[in-house]
Amino acid sequence: MQGKKVYQEQLFNSFQLSERVPVTNFYRRLKEALSLDFLYQLTRDFYGSSGQKSIDPVVFFKLCLVGYLENIISDRKLIEHCSMRLDILYFIGYDIDEELPWHSTISRTRQLFPEEVFESVFTKVFILCVEAGMVSGHTQAIDSAPVKANASMDTLELKVPEEELESHLRRVRHISRWIKSSLFAKAKRINQITTSAA
Question: Residue 176 falls within a domain, yes or no?
């Protein structure tokens, strides 16, 4: 016999978001790996002592991270996207019946912080991800977009590589190790500054 599903909304519901997000889900793993409590100390000076409470800075930076990971540049689309995804709601600490911040709140909060705050947050999050084993330096990806060239076919020339592939790769790996070690050194200095300020 053919079944037919009829949806009837329940008035009362026993629902836990943590039970609906699989343990292997990326955002669940990210939530467990990242402790962004350092943001309260880092952003405290940018807020007044009276008035209406702002968006939680941890939620704001998690939303920025989601926007980056999901390739969403519009704050309006970001909030719309997050409201439809249970794993993202779990990651940012909202339940299904809680209203997310307005997109204009995200835009205003982004203008509140200087560039140095975003850089230090990025560095700290990067360090936390490396320590949690979520990031390694084995693979590099480069994003590009095809652009139609405006060139004459008569001016094309055959290009020959200046060096062999193996020697080029050795040089690139050496430079990559140097950059990685300098980034880690800079990240540790910033981490020491932020933890000593706390």
Answer: no
- Residue 101 inside a domain? The answer is yes
Q: Which portions of the chain are predicted below pLDDT 70? A: 1-13, 137-140, 149, 151, 160-162, 197-198
pLDDT digits (tens, 9 = 90+) for 126-171: 888 788 777 776 666 777 777 776 767 777 777 766 677 777 777 7
Closest CA to 87 of 14, 17, 16, 34: 17
Phi/psi of residue 135, nearest 5 degrees: -130, 135
* Residue 88 within a domain: yes
pTM attached to this predicted model? 0.64
> Which DSSP string corresponds to 105-172?
HHHHHHHHS-HHHHHHHHHHHHHHHHHTTS--SS--------------GGG------SS-HHHHHHHH
Residue with tokens 């290009």: 159
Q: Which domain holds residue 46?
A: 13-113
**Which tokens hold the place of 130?**
């490396």
In a domain, 43, yes or no: yes
Number of domains comprising the chain? 1
